[in-house]
Write a structure and sequence with these properties.
single chain, 229 residues, mainly beta, 4-stranded antiparallel β-sheet, 1 helix, 3% helix, disordered N terminus
């Protein structure tokens, strides 16, 4: 499978109307100015063939792009050149998350922390089953939702489990998002806010449709749904 990375820049214009032409429409005494051309066109930076197909979505940071492979390995590619920086053998690698130069990898009933710069394994922690949502990490806390409905929080620095709680596991469609105070979980049609400090439920609500990805904003939670967005 080939990986393609492209970079492009988008220059946005703000005017008195919906676009620059409309903004100038009422200014009949001024000469209409042409829109500037894009600074840089989109270009393919590099292309490589991976050793095998990815088993889940990749992750990227300032230095590398990371991919879990069906062959039972995780590969790190140099972000600038596409050259292989390192590979590490892990049994059935799946979901990835990265923060502060540490890559977190779902394995068979485990989560592994791997040094992003060199591929060194830092710690392993027990999950007790497969995941029904991608790993989520924010400000030193890693959160995993296991297929049994157990939501587990780990300290990202050493893998120590901080708390655990059980959610309704009748659905296999779930997503997780974190901020500085809370963990938000969409599971089936239910959205739950959980206290980051102790795992206690702060509120939960049932919405229409099957819920999907979460996006957090100031005092807002945006959640996709099979019924509405």
């Amino acid at each position: 499978m080939a990986l393609r990375l492209t970079a492009s820049f988008l220059l946005l214009f703000a005017g008195l109307g919906a676009c620059p032409q409309q903004a100038l429409a009422g200014q009949r005494d001024e000469k209409r100015k042409p829109l500037p051309a894009p600074l840089l066109p989109a270009e393919q930076a590099w292309q490589v063939d991976l050793p095998s197909a990815p088993s889940a979505a990749g992750a990227i940071d300032h230095a590398h792009a990371y991919f879990p492979l069906r062959s039972g390995a995780v590969i790190a590619l140099d972000r600038e050149t596409g050259a292989t920086a390192w590979t590490i053998d892990l049994e059935a690698p799946g979901s990835l998350a990265i923060e502060d130069g540490v890559l977190f990898v779902e394995g068979t009933g485990q989560v592994h922390a791997v040094q992003g710069s060199g591929g060194k394994r830092l710690w392993d922690a027990t999950l007790g089953g497969g995941l029904i949502a991608p790993l989520a990490v924010f400000r030193g806390m890693l959160v995993a939702l296991v297929e049994s409905g157990q939501l587990k929080a780990f300290r990202a620095s050493d893998g120590q489990q901080l708390w655990q709680r059980t959610l309704d596991s009748r659905s296999t469609t779930a997503a997780i998002a974190l901020d500085a105070a809370s963990v938000y979980v969409s599971l089936g049609s239910r959205l739950t806010r959980i206290d980051r400090a102790d795992g206690a439920t702060r509120w939960e609500t049932d919405l229409e449709g099957t819920l999907g990805a979460l996006t957090l904003g100031p005092d807002r939670v945006f959640v996709g749904s099979s019924d509405k967005v």
